[in-house]
Amino acid sequence: MVQIMRILLLSQWCQPEPFFKGVPFAKALKARGHDVEILTGFPNYPGGKIYPGYRIRLFQREVIDSIPVNRVALYPSHNHSGFHRILNYMSFALSAAAIGPLLVKKPDVIYAYNLITLEWAAWILKKWHRCPVVFDIQDMWPDSVTDSGMMQKSALLRVLNAWCKSVYRRATHLTTLSPGFKNELVKRGIPKNNISVIYNWCDEANINESTSVPPETNNLMKDNAFIVMFAGTMGVMQGLDAILDAAERLLKIEPKIKFVFVGGGIECERIKKSAIDRSLENVTFLERQPPERIKAILQMADVLLVHLRDTALFKITIPSKVQAYMAAGKPILLGAIGDSANIVRKSEAGVVVTPENPKSIANGILKLYRMTENERKRMGLKGLQYYKEKLSMDAGVQKFEKIFYKLIQN
Q1: Residues 100 and 161 in one domain
Q2: Is the pLDDT of residue 381 over 90?
Q3: What is the residue range of the signal peptide feature (predicted)?
């Protein structure tokens, strides 16, 4: 007989924000018979503005797709300012710690998503309800803070580093997105038996949703262009100047190759202005699209592009775009190193190039462009099959469920 668990998902982000482990994760656990609720903030990511239909208040309860969602106050922000980002994280952390325990039912297990700042709320909830906490590590703190440029080496950074280590050690169990992350956590003194690797999945509901493309793409389709698409958040970590440099090279070699950037983020306007200033006629920008258009947008592409800056941290990172692109069944051009490159090579889902190297990026695109349509189709299908077997939501949720059961029974 299956044991029914009461599971609390603690995350600063949740639907209607574009977040794959919010309501979809809760619904998947509920479909397996469990009682699930969410503690989160008011939606403002990625633009830093509160979504229509919401306003900041001390707390709010709502139900999304049959999942109870408890929201607590935060300071909305997502810009270049390190101070504002810290306010954003800390304000939610304090609200979740102070108000959260009074809003949620007693859980059997708490799942906390990623942010080190959630440790306060997780610790109080753990003590209040006497239940285990699983921390899902998606960014290696404080490395992700320093690599983003939000904080330089300082005494404050040393304090943050010590705090991060203590958070990792106090969690009942850690899950993380790649073997490289697990190895790094072990180096930092976490027993390897306390860490599980569970690969991220993508927004499968919308990847499989069929809808129309936006009208502003009509000219691209009419020109029978070869479309290289970047879809998602345009931030500092994506290193998109190198992509514009590659686009400039290819404009002279093969003007039929077009670059389409879809989405928003703190670097979007700067990158857009740079493309205009350089007269890159082969580069098009589309606004962030509603989730239900994801499939139609991705299916426009001949090649889907993933690019990350060339830093040590990204050797162990697998960006969520990899899973989304594989699930879309399209060939991938990956500008990254380490674990994500290993997945693309192992699955034979695409071509791996040197990140932040415009010549390598351009050559990789030309390699895909010169393949036959059937060769590219085979790449996409291999990626899709690998996703279903290794990276899908079903595979991930089963692993989380086993961990939750084990912790509750101990």
Answers
A1: yes
A2: yes
A3: none
d(C-alpha 395, C-alpha 387), whole Å? 10
181 and 217 belong to one structural domain: no
* Cα–Cα distance list, 98 to 56, 57, 102, 111, 130 (Å): 16, 14, 8, 18, 17
373-386 and 339-347 are packed helices; what angle lies between their axes, rounded to 10 degrees?
Answer: 120
> 215 and 77: one domain?
no
Residue 244 shares a structural domain with residue 99 = no
What are 90-133's pLDDT values in tens digits? 999 999 999 999 999 999 999 999 888 898 899 999 999 999 99
If asked whether residues 197 and 210 sit together in one domain, one would say no
**Number of independent structural domains in the chain:** 2
Instruction: For tokens 């990158």, name the residue.
Output: 271
